[in-house]
Amino acid sequence: MTDITVNGNTIDPQEYVSQDAKNHNFIYIQGYHDFDIDQKLRLVEMHVEIQEYVAQHTYLCRYTPEDLETVQSLRFVKSANM
């Protein structure tokens, strides 16, 4: 996977995989490509609010549910972590 750099901080999505989203309101989601409208609508149905496009194919999102596996299991999502 490609490293993600946000505000000068580099994240290796393979180094750390979040098991859940407890106690956090924001996650990043990386796709295999930029999300199309149908994929974005699917994320909205899952209570994902895309806030900002932060790196190649990567979005900073507001997400309040604790279950992160449902987002991680989507076919168009490469990684989803805190």
How would you describe the overall organization of this protein?
The chain has 82 residues and is an alpha+beta fold. It has a single domain, classed as Alpha-Beta Plaits (2-Layer Sandwich). It has helices spanning 37-45, 69-72; strands at residues 4-6, 9-11, 26-31, 48-55, 58-63, 77-81. It has a 4-stranded antiparallel beta sheet with strand order 4-5-3-6. It is globular and about 30 Å long. The two termini are 16 Å apart. The mean pLDDT is 84.
Task: Give the C-alpha Rg.
Answer: 11 Å
Report the average pLDDT across residues.
Answer: 84
Strand order of the largest sheet: 4-5-3-6
DSSP strand tally: 6
Query: Which outline best applies?
Result: globular
CATH topology (fold) name: Alpha-Beta Plaits
Oligomeric state of shown chains? single chain
CATH class: Alpha Beta
Main sheet characteristics: 4 strands, antiparallel
Report the end-to-end length measured between terminal Cα atoms: 16 Å
Helix content range: 10-25%
Strand content: 35-45%
Sequence stretches where pLDDT stays below 50 over 5 or more residues: none
What is the ordering of alpha helices and beta strands?
Answer: EEEHEEHE
* CATH architecture descriptor text: 2-Layer Sandwich
User: What is the number of helical segments per DSSP (H or I, 4+ residues)?
Assistant: 2
Instruction: Give the tally of structural domains.
Output: 1
Q: Could you outline the blueprint of secondary structure elements for this entry?
A:
Elements: E1 4-6, E2 9-11, E3 26-31, H1 37-45, E4 48-55, E5 58-63, H2 69-72, E6 77-81
